[in-house]
Design brief:
By secondary structure, this protein is mainly β. The protein contains one helix and 14 strands; from the N terminus they run E-E-E-E-E-E-E-E-E-E-H-E-E-E-E. The strands form four sheets. Strands 6, 8, 9, 11, 12, 13 and 14 form a seven-stranded mixed β-sheet that branches. It has a three-stranded antiparallel β-sheet with strand order 5-7-10.
């Protein structure tokens, strides 16, 4: 199989096979997939933590300020022939671009921090209170890697109550 040029629409028909045989191509439904230069998009950050707690220990409730942290990943230096890095491994690579962090309260976007080059962002209790005085609504973050006009996979954190 040869590769396709980027940003085009590919039409395919899947031909499932089982002990009865293969679905005839005339019976298969044609599907379309539009490619989107995935190979140019930055990797999502890994090792995402809340107040230095890993995903498995993510709190349901926090008190005071919250620090969201992550490790940079790099599609070029982690590319072909390199060792795969688990998402929960500490240590950063040189970032390909910047990070955008968004804070949502009760499902509504309240804050955006764009063009971040570091590996953390603090959401203060004062900001949280200003965003919505009802401190019972859940908070979650999205973390988006951006490289020029390319946006990588968006990471969404579990929600928690911040008070």
């Amino acid at each position: 199989m040869s590769g396709y040029a980027s940003d085009l629409t590919v039409k395919v028909k899947l031909l499932p096979r089982n002990s009865m045989g293969v679905l005839p191509i005339a019976s298969a439904v044609e599907m379309s997939l539009t490619t989107a230069s995935r190979y140019l998009k930055p990797y999502p950050p890994g090792n995402v933590k809340l107040n230095n707690l890993a995903y498995a220990s993510w709190p349901a409730t926090t008190t005071g300020d919250v620090t969201l942290s992550w490790s940079h990943r790099n599609r070029v230096t982690q590319g072909i022939g390199q060792t795969l890095i688990a998402q929960d491994v500490a240590g950063s690579y040189t970032p390909e671009g910047t990070i955008t962090v968004k804070a949502y309260v009760g499902g509504t976007l309240k804050r955006t921090w764009a063009t971040l080059t570091g590996t953390s962002q603090v959401y203060t209790l004062a900001e949280r209170s200003a965003d919505d005085v009802d401190l019972s609504k859940p908070v979650y973050f999205t973390i988006t890697p951006v490289n020029g006009s390319y946006q990588g996979t968006i990471r969404t954190t579990p929600s928690f109550v911040m008070g």
